[in-house]
Design goal:
8 strands, 44% helix
Length: 223
């Protein structure tokens, strides 16, 4: 049997990054007199990218905006985020134990995220887990990004694995749709950054913590 492969999303799946993301956004908008956004807004928005968080800041302040303005604020937001990328972000409990167990069982693991690759690489390095992954594909690695299946399939290929023996792990409908588009089973985390219950997206499995991840991966793999 070919080597099994697990491809993880990053924000809301491997790591709780919302505190630094909302901190960067609040810093960006403080000069406009916007009230700081609470963490809860980032926890249902961060999984959809920096521009979604910028739009949320306008909405929270009750201010109208044009997409051109959002585009113009995107890189200043990324600059602020880069300065504090791992100040408060952390791996979810059980991630290290799960990665250790997957390695011991011969799984190949990779990361497919819609965070820009440079920021994703920096974050994983700061969290001391970058070396554990066989491949990393970010939002700007390829001409396409999730939910385009090419992003996921390329990650699998760069890991040296096969799609038929792979599983996607994520936390939002972007991840679910990516896996579906690639014809790959999907496990979803209930503790991530989805704005709707993940069970409604009919993934092959839902986990409430990383303590359940290994069993879920092995069960999905056997199917």
């Amino acid at each position: 049997m070919s080597t099994p492969c697990a491809i993880f999303d990053l924000d809301g799946t491997l790591a709780h990054t919302a505190p630094d993301l909302v901190g960067a956004a609040n810093d960006l908008f403080s000069g406009r007199g916007f009230a700081p956004m609470p963490l809860s807004i980032a926890e249902t928005t961060a999984g959809f990218g920096g521009k979604a968080l910028i739009r949320a800041a306008f909405d929270h302040a009750g201010q109208s905006y044009e997409e051109q303005e959002v585009d113009g604020l995107y890189h200043p937001f990324l600059d602020r985020y880069a300065e504090r990328i791992a100040d408060e972000s952390r791996l979810y409990d059980g991630v290290i134990d799960t990665l250790d167990a997957l390695d011991a069982r011969g799984w190949i693991i990779g990361v497919c995220t819609n965070k820009p690759e440079g920021l994703a690489r920096t974050l994983l390095q700061r969290l001391d887990v970058l070396h554990r992954f066989g491949a990393l594909v970010g939002a700007d690695t390829l001409p396409v990004r999730k939910p385009d299946p090419v992003a996921l399939l390329t990650t699998i290929e760069r890991c040296g694995a096969e799609a038929y023996f792979s599983v996607m792990i994520g936390d939002t409908d972007t991840d679910r749709n990516t896996a579906r588009n690639a014809g790959i089973p999907c496990i979803m985390t209930s503790f991530g950054y989805s704005d709707t219950p993940v069970a409604e997206m009919t993934p092959e499995a839902v986990v409430d913590s990383f303590a359940e991840m290994l069993d879920a991966l092995e069960a999905v793999r056997r199917r």
